[in-house]
# Entry
Amino acid sequence: MENKAELSKFSDFRISYSETKIDKATSIHHYHDTYEIVLFEKADLQIFIKDYEYKISDGDVFFINEFDIHHIMYNVTPHYERYVVHFKKDLLLPLLKVMNMESILEQLSCIPYRKVHPNLKVRTELKSYFESIHRATGFKHEPFDETSKAQVLSNLMLLLIRVHELLKTEQPKHELSRSDYIIQDVIRYIDTNYMNQINLEQLSNSLFTNKYYLCHLFRKKAGFSIMEYVQYRRIIEAQKLLKDTDNDITGICYDCGFNNAQHFYRVFRKISKVTPLQYRKIHRVI
# Structure
């Protein structure tokens, strides 16, 4: 399978339930413009997200921030089962304001560790929220009327609050290795300097690490190359600016680290499947 991160686009809300088997080890990486909460009932996989690799097993609950690139490595298993909800901030914002909880998503996004393995009692509680949401959609993917939407929103809020409570006290279960710290430094450097010119020589020198070792280590952990990650980070930031500002597209190109507008348009279309102008129009309509 070709390693190419793509933007997965959803409406304001979507729930899905999957029960299947994985016959062949495979991997994908992508990102989406929604928040995501997953309950893994049965699973054997690894997720690399931001700067940490998580081992996922039965009963784990996972939170993914909007626009976070994640690399998922599925292992062969006879039973894979999970619930997942995708939602945008705008869906919950009116309710969050009423409850004086507007900062909860920002707080969740700042929590460095995204996985929790709750005990059976708590897992049963969380599963009941997923089941109630799924039932409210008529066991489909989205609410179908105002009553359905109200039931979805109320249970989604309860789920979000509970996941926040669990994650804010959760800590990694194992010590980070030297290679883990190196990957964290690479991600941190790119996320801080994507708007500037970045090359491998410069990056490896700043981290006092051999360039070839750094490239090998990053691809092994993340599933794609360092310079691919640089491109994805720049396009993600460009998408945010196109959606949330009226800034000139050429200006956005240079603000996000591209020094050639033609190259920016080519990379943007490759990752987003639309041109920058089309992306802006689509999201302004929504």
